[in-house]
Amino acid sequence: ERLRTELMTCGDIVSTGRYPYTGTLGILSEKDKEKVRKALETVHALDLKDRDFTAISDGQRQRILLARAICQEPEVIVLDEPTSFLDIRHKLELLSILKKMVLEQKVAVLMSLHELDLAQKISDMVICIHGDRIEKYGPPEEIFTDAYIHELYGITSGSYNANFGCLELPPVLEKPEIFVIAGNGTGIPVYRKLQRQGKAFITGVIHKNDLDYQVARALAAEVIGEEAFQEISQENYDQAKKALLKCKKVICAIDHFGIMNRKNEELLKEAEHKGIEIYKM
């Protein structure tokens, strides 16, 4: 039967981590009490010490339970999905505490996570479980690749981007009637909004080292890309112009053109000359 924590403070909960080290009477020594205090301090929860454990938030409870484990002075901590049901702030706080323990106290932390973005950023080594067996083991740089994550999870709808550690929904498979001129990351919110609205689009000319290019490959019906650090070639310009003239609308997400993307400004002028409907962000 699960223990009930009515009338127990957060300090009481953390103190239970020290009882295995007490004598026959189970009385905490001053040394034990200091370890409880330090554990609460480690998880930034000293202010919760006298609060009713049942009256605090899920994120606060996670910190208190972690403090209970810390005050046992373990060499290894095993956590089962510790970030589940936590908002993003408390996820980051909890994982930051764990990473600090690993680096400063040399505690080994073994935990299961379903959040790929968090696992990629915090893990030193990753074990991939497929069904009931270990399929792969290695550092995150080897595990988190587009190809392997698609294979591991059997992703057929949408895509995973290892550079960003994020998922993208599948592109709209219709005839595109919108051309997006973007660059320097300005296109990403436009691409995602169009995808949410179920509108297919073409975008270009985007340099392949641009943030926009990464997302455009996942969401656009067609991407006209240029090699990194190169001025837009006449060939790519002509390809983009041909695609643009087939569209009914043009969205320009950038308000500045430089040497490298000067031909995108020419695309915008071409759309104006042909009387195509233009939206500027």
UniProtKB/TrEMBL annotation:
An example molecular function term from Gene Ontology annotations: ATP hydrolysis activity
Domain of life: Bacteria
Ranges in coiled-coil conformation: none
Pfam families in alphabetical order: ABC_tran
Record InterPro entries: ABC_transporter-like_ATP-bd, Metal_Ion_Import_ABC, P-loop_NTPase
UniProt keyword list: ATP-binding, Nucleotide-binding, Transport
Domain ABC transporter: 31-84
Protein name, UniProt field: ABC transporter ATP-binding protein
Lineage: Bacteria, Bacillati, Bacillota, Clostridia, Lachnospirales
